[in-house]
Queue: 2 jobs
Job 1
Amino acid sequence: MLSIALTGNPNTGKTSLFNMLTDSYEYVGNWAGVTIEKKVGVLNNKQGQLVDLPGIYSLSPLSRDEGVTTLYLLEESPSLLLNVVDASQLTRNLHLTVQLLEYGKPVVLALNMIDVAKNRGLEIDVELLAQKIGIPIIPVIARSGYGCDKLLQTAMNPLDSAHPSHPEPFDYGTILETAIAKLEERLPENVEPKRWLALQFFEGNIPVLQMLRQYIDPVWLQAFYSETEERIRAAFDGKKLPDFIRDQRAAIIDEWLQSAVRESKTAQITLSERIDAVVMNKYLGIPVFLAFMYFTFKLTFDWIGTPLSDLLDSLLNGPIRDSLNILLDKADAAAFIKALILDGIVGGVGGVLVFVPQIFMLFLIISFIEDSGYMARIATVMDKLLEGVGLNGKAFIPMIIGFGCNVPGIMAARTIEQPKERLLTILLTPLMSCSARLSVYSLFVGTFFKSNQALIVLSLYVLGVVVALLLAFIFSRTLEKEEESMFIVEMPPYRIPQWRSLSRSTWEKGKGFVRKAGTFIFGGSVVIWLLGYTGFQGWDVPMNESFLQTIGSIIAPIMAPLGFGNWQAGAALITGFLAKEVVVSTMGIIYAAPTQAGLEGAITHFFTPLQAYSFMAFILLYVPCLATVGVIRKETKSAKWTWFSVGYALIVAYIIAFIIYRGGLLLGFH
Ligand code: GDP
Ligand code: MG
């Protein structure tokens, strides 16, 4: 079967194209580093498979996600490379193209974003460029699908006589060419592609070096590299070998573009620059971001999310519950079954499902941040702050994604090159308040802080970020020092997100929440309901003689200093480790209050506003949920750090909730 690999610089539209050309859907975002793993899909015409790879500027890997592409090229043998190039950034993009041509497999160039190029006043003579490079070039707009059919056709038949398909190898000058030939000779017959391997070796590509060591004496390799570098240095003003290769390529690219691209002058200040002057301003940047977040929560709570959620609640606990009731009576269901379904499942799962509108609202806004281009800007604005506490500006991207769900947030930390900074980011991302916690806040702010819901919730998000920054400062001082790192984040142009891709990515994020309600929370609710239904006395015991009470009572005294020393809160905290939404389910079951209004009424008897705030802060900070712990383990590959992430969170949550509650009491709150 045909296997086509999508390669290109970050943010050039590879994933958009992947979605157009295959029957699958992957995640698209307007910032570098969205795709961190290779993704495989079946081509629309069913004649092969397409592999989406992380974006790279060069084949020498810097960060873990960049290594994915080089390893793919080393280990697998794609039949064709589909090189996606941003037409508005040709000079930079083509460096990778040259390296791909050297790989020796057929290359088809997808000239993407021609709409953007046109707006910038670039005129590209596609025919001429194709002749010069010697490969087929197809102009496309991956976002709308323009040109995609023709691209697929060409990819099926790249060596068709209608296209130029035999690029000449580039001449790197006598010194290097002699060295390449010498290295090629040393390689066994079956090791391919020789010229590409040799060039990558001279560029300092570590995975390639490791591979060559299997065939050639490492000592000889080392000496040969130094010798070649010496020669280049002597002949070219002390230029380093990788720089020399890069400059040679730059010269070729210049020659290609000189005749094929014409630029009409457009010197006015763009809208993009005007927006950046505000959102990236030294003083305004952070306040603008906070205002944006405040607006987000206003939308989520006051304006759209909560009214919808109330509607859902009245539907669930009105017509739906009533008809279930009638149905169960008709079926002559036993009292046990009836209670399990109505109190356990409708109470537990329904209690969480009513927050679907708030959570989708939040995901919609996160998708907007990602796709508009604001994401990379916030990362840049935050870089100074993050650098001060020992993190990289890029850490902000995992953190924002963590606002949706900590699991993909932690995975996004793969784009951070420095191992120490990456570890720190992984450890601290769980402190970002995810949407699961939002369901707990929704319940509590709706009960205790009706008039300023958005502000109270914003304060919890800020609390999570501030604690993360403080801990980063402390941790980075205690972890052993490594070399300094640089912050390079690609600044994508602003784009008005398309409704189609926004709704798609909101759904992709939100469906996890719905699925979780159907599986985890469903199972959890049944178990919790059973624990509440049974006790040492047998079945159908009063709630405060149940096993749930027994379990909750164990930790209740420990929590008493924080203001929530009742067994109900204790039981909710323990079950919340499964998934934080389960806290809400548990409360719904314990207080036997399926409707949101009923539940709100019940918790006012057990919490004061101050205790409620302390409880929310504790929920925010204490242990990452089960799925998050799993992904921490996977990403750090270390049991030690996984335990650490749970342990420090418990301690910090305890201290902060203590300070909030005791401090609040001293200040006269109650
Ligand atoms: P990748 O990082 O290479 O996988 O790129 P993505 O597919 O994630 O796309 C990056 C951004 O560019 C997204 O915001 C896309 O909507 C946008 N985009 C992709 N193709 C085009 C195009 O042809 N024209 C325009 N204007 N935007 C595009
Ligand atoms: Mg991608």
Job 2
Amino acid sequence: MRISKRFELIGHRGAMAHAPENTLVSFQRAIDMGATMVELDVHLTRDGELVVIHDHELARTTTGSGLVEDMTLAEIRRFDAGIGIHADFRGQKVPTLQEVLEITSHHVALNIEIKAGRQTYPKIIDKLLDIIYQYDARNEIVISSFHRAYLREIRQEDAGIEVALLYSEAVPGILDEAIQEGWQGLHPWYKLVDRELLNEAHRLGLSVRAWTVNQLPDMVSLIRLGTDGICTNFPDILKSVVTELGID
Ligand code: G3P
Ligand code: CA
């Protein structure tokens, strides 16, 4: 399955309005609700494992505390990541990227966002590529980051994997930069998406996927403009919009 020019219904951290973010149950829920792509965030543990968690520290989303980069995978797995939504979710662990790929691989596409710890992780790209190769998942993954250096390293290591820049404020000259850097996509905050950006990006062969869109009218407007994907906490609502507009 190659990520195509189809519209991507992207579950943000799974289906985070319905299940604890970045947990296996959240990813499964997004898929069940009709997501064609699942978005997640990765950090590197002290013993070099890729774990799926948004923050570089544990306190907000687990029963633990401390920095991911200071802890081993085994230490992190002692904590409960199933907090915050409903007691039924208790017992979820911080997943490894491999565990998520067991669910998504050859089934739905994956948007892997590479985060940073105290600083960007020097060895994260090698580990990430190893896992992608292990699951034969090169063609069903887009790697995104706010950190340009990660995208550049991936392009140097394997130009066949899609990369996209995340950004939250207007970036002058971003289309020229995208072509120069060899990015295949742009992942802007949704209020930065307009017809001009989409027209120019599409003329250059770039995909534009917007985040994080949780209101139905915004979903409708962005789809009508021609946005290539929408990342949402509510894959169920986006699915109903996509069905109503007849683009699924
Ligand atoms: O995919 C876009 C979005 O995930 C970026 O922001 O903070 O939710 O990781 P954040
Ligand atoms: Ca993210």
